[in-house]
Give the backbone structure.
Amino acid sequence: MAINVKDLDRDFKYQVMREPGGEYLSRCFACGTCTASCPVREIDERFNPRKIIRMTLLGMKKEVIESEFVWLCTACYMCQERCPQDVKITDLMNAIKNVAVKEGFIHPSYTAQVEALKNFSRLYEVGEFENKKRQKIGLPALDTETKKEFVQVIDDYVSGLLKGGEE
Amino acid sequence: MKYAFFLGCTVPVRAQNYELSARRVAEKLGIELVDIPEFRCCGYPIKSVNFRGHLVMSAINLALAEKQGLNITTLCNACSVTMIEANEELKEHPEFLEEVNRELSKFGLEYKGTVNVKHFARVLYEDYGLDKLKEHITRPLEGYRFAAHYGCHFIRPSSVYAEFDDPQYPVSLDRLVEVTGAEAVDYPEKQLCCGGGILGIKEDVALALSNKKLGIVKEKNADGMISICPFCSIMYEGNQKKIEKIYEKEYGIPVLYYTQILGLAMGFSSEEMGLKLNRIKPRALMEAFSNG
Ligand code: SF4
Ligand code: SF4
């Protein structure tokens, strides 16, 4: 990777470390155990947790948060189990995603999920149709109401992030 | 034995055979599952977007169970890990709990942090116990061979599961399969992820992950895979035909929920365990255990 020093953002790593899960970023000594343990990396070489961590430490903010890669982590926790430095990599990947969202980069599949949650308080709607089907096979009908609690949480924590940036 | 029954988003619409078999099995075992109508999403999808927001979502559900003095049991690995981890975060960080309760107070809710969350398979393994479970087996599934698929979030991260099972070489679900009288097939990469978490992000990579394990299980010639998570089943069962097409393979591997085979061994019929709702028909089991 070609690095242009001018483009580096020295604050990026602190921004990640301030997010829950990002705290242990600077413990990484680049051994590569995470990359060797990663099932996604085995299939798509462009996804490389060790590299994402190095890029974050270096301050390659744009490359990290605008890439699709951070969204490719399945959260399988294999890297986290094996990291000798206890970097808590899966949580760190989540922290990076949280920063990306704050900067206006959210993967569209998550925008859709947020939308569904706001409408149904569930990922999938349970309405009359679904309840009829449930009852037909012997399952109880579920409460179909959209809960104001969930609408509120999304309004308070998420909606603002989707409209533009924060921080 | 009594738990608040947390269904989550996926089970009630996409894994009705799982829910049906779990409810029937629990009833017969004398495990009371209490439906709390106000339960909604566990918060998992929001974690990647905003960690604090996902904590509040989890806490709404935790607070609802706490109000009734109940611990939670779930059928989904993602719901389990999300609420277990949220619980830990709220315990470890008083400032999170404070913030969460500020939000909850808007709806007259409060969370004190007293609720315990456990996957239903772990409830069977740990709280109910294998010995007591064995007493209910009236029709052992002798001669059947199943490959147990744990799914990541049933055993990892070890930071919250250390006292339960090994994060890389787990045994609990194999023991549960053996209780039914069936053989638990040993196979490499038992810990491998199904890929479900990125199905909506990059389908080809997600399906490649599932294909890998389907290939391993096929070689072992098992009668089926045993799942305890709706996401894992969507990957291995719901997407199996698609995977076969992409990779030009013929798998035809039935994927059953653990509660389905447990129920068969407890004397329920294949109809009662919802086997006809399985996408890849477990024909041998359907014929052997039909009531008609
Ligand atoms: S395993 Fe841990 S220490 Fe090694 S490169 Fe990955 S994050 Fe860094
Ligand atoms: S948690 Fe993410 S980065 Fe770590 S091994 Fe799994 S997929 Fe790879």
Observations:
- Residues 9-102 of chain A form a domain with the Fumarate Reductase Iron-sulfur Protein; Chain B, domain 2 fold (CATH 1.10.1060.10).
